[in-house]
Amino acid sequence: MNFEVAYIGGTFDAYINLFQLATGQTLANPGTWSSSTTYLTNTVVVASDNNAYVALSTSTSVNPVTDGGVHWALATGFDLTNYSASMPIGVQGGTPIFTLTSGSGLTLGGTAGTVVIKATPTQTTGVPLSNRSLHYYLQITNTSDATDVYFPVGGSISFFQP
Q1: Domains of the chain (ranges plus CATH)?
Q2: Separation of alpha carbons 71 and 109, rounded Å
Q3: By C-alpha distance, which of 140, 108, 143 is closest to 17?
Q4: First to last CA, the chain
Q5: Residue 28 or residue 1, greater confidence
Q6: 3 state SS for the chain
Q7: What is the dihedral of CA 118, 12, 75, 62, to 10 degrees?
Q8: Could you tell me which residue, 46 or 105, shows the higher pLDDT?
Q9: What is the pTM of this model?
Q10: Residue 72: beta bridge partners?
Q11: Taking Cα atoms as reference points, which of 93, 75, 83, 70 lies closest to residue 30?
Q12: Is the pLDDT of residue 23 over 60?
């Protein structure tokens, strides 16, 4: 997942929704349902009622809102209760320029599966003018079991000089 607009020396805000598909599988920020798209099993979409749905089988033109549970089911948010998170942000393969963590730039939304991201102007001021496309990944770790670790999303953040 790529974030296209962030300003060096400004606040960077973003929001991620995580959904549980099956044991060990998570999905971040699903796309919007379209009647012209063929959806495969376990595809997650956001429908016209603003709910997320997971495909139970392959379908085309089957509206999740009116399906009645034949092809689609409401998606379950990834329960982030008892998890912590970290998000290093920096040049790919290099040392992070800054790292956001639970309670310090990352706010986990418990059973809703949401992650609110907020980098401060002090943090974004450290972005080098020579390389303004930085990479990140989100790591979530179960606070009761350090071996229960997920990396549900990663990508780039493009920073611009205002």
Answers
A1: 3-18+79-160 (2.60.40.10), 31-74 (2.10.10)
A2: 28
A3: 108
A4: 23
A5: 1
A6: CCEEEEECCCCEEEEEEEEEEECCEEEECCEECCCCCEECCCCEEECCCCCEEEECCCEECCCCCCCCCCCEEECEECCCCCEEEEEEEECCCCCEEEEEEECEEEEECHHHCEEEEEECHHHHCCCCCCCCEEEEEEEEEECCEEEEEEEEEEEEEEEECC
A7: 170
A8: 105
A9: 0.80
A10: 55
A11: 75
A12: no
With tokens 């929704």, the residue in question is: 17
Q: Kindly give, in sequence order, each residue whose CB lies less than 8 Å from that of residue 52, ignoring residues fewer than 6 positions away.
A: 17, 19, 30, 44, 45, 46, 74, 75
Give me the residue label for tokens 């495909």.
55
